[in-house]
TrEMBL record:
<protein>
    <submittedName>
        <fullName>Uncharacterized protein</fullName>
    </submittedName>
</protein>
<dbReference type="InterPro" id="IPR043858">
    <property type="entry name" value="DUF5820"/>
</dbReference>
<dbReference type="Pfam" id="PF19137">
    <property type="entry name" value="DUF5820"/>
</dbReference>
Amino acid sequence: MSDFADLPDGWVVWNEEPDGRCVLAYRPDVFDSAEFPAPCLPTLYLTRGRRNHRRPGVSREDAVSGDWYVTLYLEPDVQLQETNRFESREAGVAGTVELAQRFADGEIDPDDVYQVPREEYIAKLHALTGQS
């Protein structure tokens, strides 16, 4: 049985690796690369250590810590700037489900994440998450 049995509607486990890392996708039936480019598939990553540890400004300590991180991406270079750090994988899974729920409930506004938004894409996210 998956650790993600309580995922909100619209979220699916895209990949779950033996080391515990996971990728979840939001509405792959909608963001299927036909109507929207494939990179527009909203994703959640649960990783041990930061996913972006090679980027400038990320400390090496964060990259190699035993902590688990949850990161929401609206596309590869567009992520929610919120630190979701957990001491255990179990806590990270709970944090992943909580962030997925906040997103599905419309509590995370894509307009706040983008510097230069894709208008059609954000309008679709607003419609799917009940935002006007």
